[in-house]
Amino acid sequence: MIPRTSNRPRRRLFATDRALARAVFFFFLALYTLVATGLPDHMDSEVEYQTTSALGRGRGFALGGTPESDALVAARAAAPSEPRVPLKVGRGGTYSWFGTGQALVGVPFYWMGKGVARLAPGVEARFAQRTLEGVTRSEYFGHLFVGLRNPLLGALCCWLVVLIALQLGLAQRWALVAGLGYGLTTFACAQARSTLSDVQATCALLAAMHLLLLLRARVDSGRRARPEHAAFAGALLGVAFLTRLVTAPAIAVLIGVAVVLLVRDQRRALWWFLGTAVAGLFAFLYFNWMRFGALLESGYGDVVTPGGFWLYPPELGLAGLLFSPSKGLLFLAPLAVLAPFAWRASEPGLRRLFLVATLLLTLAVFGPIVATETWHGAWTYGPRYVLPALPFLWLAAMLFAERIGAALWGRLLVGALLLFGFLVNLPGMLVDHMTGQDLAMQGARLDWPDVPGSDDARFQMIQWEPRYAAPWTHWRIFRHRIAGLGEVFSPAELFFSSHAAELRPNPEMRSGFRHLAWVDLESLGGVTWPLALFLGVCVALGWRSALQASSR
Fold first, then answer.
1. Largest CA distance in the chain
2. Do residues 140 and 127 touch, judged by C-beta distance below 8 A?
3. Domain ranges of the chain
4. Mind listing the pLDDT tens digit for each residue in 218-271?
5. Which residues have a Cβ under 8 Å from the Cβ of 489 and sit 6 or more positions away?
6. pTM reported for the whole predicted model
């Protein structure tokens, strides 16, 4: 029998608590930067970057002015009904249909990259000699610095996991396990080194929850809630909404949490919170009108209209998100399976409110996804669309893990799940996920040449075929490369099939370890000592914070 826990939220975070969270942050900032992709690893990322570039160059949201964005616009003009080109013609130009928040937050990173580009014109010139799918490249350091946003935000998520764990009353050692485990043993690590928008949306939601708990802790300790904290929490929800429209149901859940925590005796703070949250909605409407001439037209309209996109069997989508060998949470975040058991081990109070919020938020995130044909998150490592729910599920699981950790069998179970998660997710950092997906699709065309629906159907099939399970495919690719066997793979080696064929990564940038930003920079003649210096500073600051956390 698992004993119930009393509600033991912290009324304040001590200096050692904050130092512990900082140590985890600097550790992951160094790690994620070291393995970062840097350049966009997906066409969607390139489109998002080109919107940021347009904003940084003073063009507004309209694409154009670089070889890549001009090629994207031309491709849209050549195939205006093709849903794989994520653009839409609007008022005064062609626009991305992705969230404007992703582009806006990237602008300061873009400006930093452009500043560094002035110091290394040779790297920019050599990058401009490259082509990708026949298109000339441009703005190397702009791409690089915008791409380094996710390692920063991913590290911030780990920092927030530690802080929230402490706010919910976990002991420091379990809060440390929560932060390290989230960053190393879930697919969050692969997402943090990648370049898509899910990390930014997740960080915004998690930071808003942290601030709401901080507001409640101030009230419980006899102090008034700080309006600026409330305003910032609401603004973060606005950023999440502008980044990914599909987070709207999850945002509604956190607004409900804010009302429960603040409406009784902190209404001034609640109004500040709601005011900035609503400002995000008005910004969304204004940007829609500015681009497309309609308040509710975000650009997705002709792609996700009611019809086949929303008619995928939801039971299959849910089963895939939980049990698929390539995308299931059971494999990509194994400790999270303990989350449902946390309910029985807690009593009414702040912990119970957090668990209720986690349940509702999980339903809000999973609900719109399970009924779509893209439940798997497309060409990424792990089910990226459910990433916003992952840290909440992880924290709920850690509440239960702390309880069973009092017994030897509990510690062994938690340790085994963490070790399994680490082994499954480590290859997502060692091998580029685009390489794995590319080689898997080449193998699938050999194994299933006559499948109706072409590559879309094959892509669905490889999510369920154990021979194509992404973690083990990535391990086999890594083993092949460190053995010095080059970039030619056989279907038998990777997928245990009998076809006599050669599989090669395409394009060239997916070969070897060039998906790592610092390796690619070296190939352009750039210097990497600033990266080494940055990593050294992160390690030093993290070590100093760890010593502060261990002091009494």
1. 73
2. yes
3. 43-147, 150-427, 432-514
4. 888 777 878 899 999 999 999 999 999 999 999 999 999 999 988 877 888 999
5. 439, 477, 480, 502, 503, 504
6. 0.94
